[in-house]
Amino acid sequence: MELLTVLKTGGVAMWIIALFSVLAVAVAVERVLALWRFTDRARSLADAVTRSLLRGDAEDARAQAERSTSPAAEVFLAAIVPTPPGKRPATDARIEAAVERQRQEANQKLRARLWILGTIGATAPFIGLFGTVVGIMRAFHQMGVTGQGGFSVVAAGISEALITTAGGIAVAIEAVILYNMLNVLAGRLQLQLKLLTEEFLEIVKEVRAGPAGAQEP
Fold first, then answer.
1. CA distance linking residue 35 with residue 113, whole number of Å
2. Domain residue spans in the chain?
3. DSSP label of 204
4. Cα→Cα distances 204→51, 81, 92, 117, 191, Å
5. DSSP labels for 76-88?
6. Rounded CA gap, 92 and 201, in Å?
7. What is the pLDDT of residues 12-53, one digit of tens each?
8. Is the CB of residue 22 less than 8 Å from the CB of residue 55?
9. Could you say which of 45, 108, 137, 186 is the most buried, measured as most Cβ atoms within 10 Å of its Cβ?
10. 57 vs 51, 61, 80, 85, 187, CA distance in Å?
11. Integer Cα distance of 67 and 64 in angstroms
């Protein structure tokens, strides 16, 4: 009931701020779940695909990557390029370029929806300020209607102004903290994916350069 009272006292601006708070938490939870054990899943997939390649079974390697739910699966698939009958195999440079494109796409997915947290962190204080202005306007309006002054006349408007200001700042702090935490996590995962991709490409090149080129994925 106290929360509902605060929301009612704060007016429309406070409801918007509350919605921002819920949205920030929802985005943070979704990102944590999406990034949970990202490196472990990517490493496990890389090991499985590598074992298949070293056995000379490129089809199984592709099947492993296609079945995987790891966000890195498309990166590994780009490195396992089948050679159509009668066609020349793809060069190492083309494979590296394809892998890099997929890695950049994976990087974008790691940072998906973080812009929402950044936007909330930047705009919530202004929503609170808007509520402050509205509250003060209401206070002066009450003074004009009643023709009286004093704290009892302007108390409701000032209360609304203070609540929305505090709410906007609190939600902005919440969103900025969550944004920074997830941004740092995404950056660390991007670096780990880069290192893992480079290791995998080295193995792919070794397999492609096998005896008489017999083991080309």
1. 12
2. 2-209
3. H
4. 11, 10, 9, 39, 20
5. HHHH-----TTSP
6. 9
7. 888 899 999 999 999 999 999 999 889 899 999 999 999 988
8. no
9. 45
10. 9, 6, 11, 17, 34
11. 5
